[in-house]
Design goal:
This protein is mainly alpha-helical and 241 residues long. The chain has helices at 27-46, 56-75, 84-100, 113-135, 153-165, 167-193, 197-200, 202-239; strands spanning 12-14, 17-18, 21-22, 25-26. The protein has one domain. Helix 3 runs antiparallel to helix 8 (202-239), helix 4 runs antiparallel to helix 6 (167-193) and helix 4 (113-135) packs parallel to helix 8. The radius of gyration is 22 Å and the shape is globular.
């Protein structure tokens, strides 16, 4: 049976050395570029016609726009409109990366913690900068819950700070763990198909087909959850509550 972890191996495609720095182009880098190219082509080609009565592809693109605009409006408010390009780009990148990872012989970049952690850190740093620029020193009042007795503040403030600093960890681990676990399960069941033969192999094959369908749902849900939490963090930075 093939090793289910082997699918996550990063392999060099083009050896590149820049002044002693290893800048080798890998399969992970290739699928990052493919993800960006896929999102760009999808949005560019689907909106090229700008038809008054949208077709199938234009409807999907417009639905994507409206979906993220609705998330920002519901979770951040009217002030969240200025952050639409960032949140929309984040959602589409994660969604397409997750979906491309389900294609045969592909590579799932969101199954690597370094990728999801960098995405989470971009959100964390960006939200913190927004809060500091908007509120200045008053931003730190976010760590002092309102209505809490003074005697309890020495305990509550460290808890609030730790909770805030743990955001990029929870955000990145959630996406990484879900994508990794799903792909491992599909690989494990697929590995039983041929060894069990023409009679016994139908059971794991059927389970694997169901898992593939389930993983498409998970791919969307994880992009959605990542985006919703980003909107909630923006809400906290803007409104401080």
């Amino acid at each position: 049976m093939a090793n289910p972890i082997e699918q996550f191996t990063i392999r060099p495609l083009v050896e590149i050395n820049l002044g002693g720095i290893d800048a080798t182009f890998t399969n992970a880098g290739a699928f990052m570029l493919l993800t960006v190219a896929s999102v760009t082509l999808f949005l560019t080609l689907s909106m090229r016609g700008r038809a008054l009565v949208p077709g199938r592809w234009q409807s999907m693109a417009e639905l994507s726009y409206e979906f993220i605009a609705g998330l920002l409006r519901d979770n951040v408010g009217s002030e969240g409109r200025r952050f639409f390009p960032f949140v929309f780009t984040l959602f589409m990148f994660i969604l397409f990366a997750n979906m491309l990872g389900l294609m045969p012989y592909s590579f799932t970049i969101t199954s690597h913690i370094i990728v999801t952690f960098i995405l989470a850190m971009v959100v964390f740093i960006g939200v913190t900068v927004v809060g500091l620029l908007r509120h200045g020193v008053k931003f730190f009042s976010y760590f002092v819950p309102s209505g809490v007795p003074m005697a309890v503040l020495p305990l509550m403030i460290p808890i609030e700070i730790i909770s805030y600093l743990s955001r990029p960890i929870s955000l990145s681990v959630r996406l990484f763990a879900n994508m990794t676990a799903g792909h491992i399960m599909m690989k494990v069941f697929a590995g039983f198909v041929i060894p069990l033969g023409i009679f016994g192999g139908w059971a794991p094959l059927g389970v694997d087909v169901l898992l593939v369908g389930f993983e498409f749902l998970v791919a969307f849900l994880q992009a959605y959850v990542f985006t919703v939490l980003t909107c909630l963090y923006l809400h906290d930075a803007i409104h401080l509550h």
